Known about the structure:
Number of helices: 14
Strand order of the largest sheet: 22-23-1-24
Helix content: 25-40%
CATH topology of the largest domain: UDP-n-acetylglucosamine1-carboxyvinyl-transferase, Chain
CATH class of the largest domain: Alpha Beta
Bound molecules: uridine-diphosphate-N-acetylglucosamine
Number of strands: 24
Structural class: alpha/beta
Amino acid sequence: xxxxxxxxxxxxxxxxxxxxxxxxxxxxxxxxxxxxxxxxxxxxxxxxxxxxxxxxxxxxxxxxxxxxxxxxxxxxxxxxxxxxxxxxxxxxxxxxxxxxxxxxxxxxxxxxxxxxxxxxxxxxxxxxxxxxxxxxxxxxxxxxxxxxxxxxxxxxxxxxxxxxxxxxxxxxxxxxxxxxxxxxxxxxxxxxxxxxxxxxxxxxxxxxxxxxxxxxxxxxxxxxxxxxxxxxxxxxxxxxxxxxxxxxxxxxxxxxxxxxxxxxxxxxxxxxxxxxxxxxxxxxxxxxxxxxxxxxxxxxxxxxxxxxxxxxxxxxxxxxxxxxxxxxxxxxxxxxxxxxxxxxxxxxxxxxxxxxxxxxxxxxxxxxxxxxxxxxxxxxxxxxxxxxxxxxxxxxxxxxxxxxxxxxxxxxxxxxx
Length: 417
Ligand code: UD1
């Protein structure tokens, strides 16, 4: 099993180009199933989850070619309605093919998903909402068997809880439903905005009518589409925290700073010096880090996907900080590993109490989920000595060329086989 070796401390200096967004690419790839015209996609990140989604689409009959950096997706002959456990087990976003398959064929069998070990992560909100569109379903042997006897029929749906995946699945399904669908209490993450923009470009009829409310008028065909996926805001945030933790100086390019205003404001409060331009962010990490209390919440709140990374930085703050995790119930798997490096973090329900003034010590560590893994890399980068991070396949699910990008800005990091 591959490991990462980090020889710290490293002060990161230089330029990092942010890749395309994994979490925007996944629903957009699923949505291509709706189309029988060619779709050309640019800026998909080279990460394992995208490879898994491409394999899932291929297993459903999609023809996919890569020409230079463009993905050409042809679903003209796509006719399979079965998404197997083998492909969905490692990636929760596999459930996103359910909406488009039902929209297109009125029937689908999709494995219940796997994904990160950060909570039970059910799909009840997806299924409850799909049933309002006319879908009947049964769960048998780990699979959702779903069919829409009269096709999907537009209606008003209010999500019982804000869910990124359920909003995406329902937006995609509703684009082909008969009549008008109004979805309210939607997630409004930038990746959802990107999906909506993609669908509009493909000829679908969607418009936001209030902050968390979208109106979708069903269409029955799409057109050939060229689309470039948005930047990865979590990757951008991770490198901003990397600069702040290592007292580094980084220029982060290929971003839209206003999309991550919340994260930038938090980092400024903690003491980082940040200047933004149209498509870049310049950050200088300071020695004195101020404590802060924060909670994760749906966009535009602070993202749960950056909670582990910011915790590393807060370990070095002058005083105690508290992070409240309001999205996932079990997303503190990194805490035990950070404590092994010398942090003093205690957990009280969904709160992490971080004592601050930590001088990390190098250690051998175990990665547990995608964002927890990268938080260990960040801690190791700023720590004197050799740290080893095991089980890094989690990192490969979501970070394109992590070691290469970090090496370019001065990190002493290498992959061991
Ligand atoms: C997406 C992101 C993930 C991010 C999360 C929250 C992708 C591929 N993944 O995950 O990186 O951390 O949003 O921003 O985009 N829930 C239910 N029932 C459901 C669906 C969700 O109870 O049917 C709960 C979840 O367990 C969780 C909360 O709702 O506690 C939010 O989950 P959701 O927004 O759906 O996250 P994902 O779409 O899985």
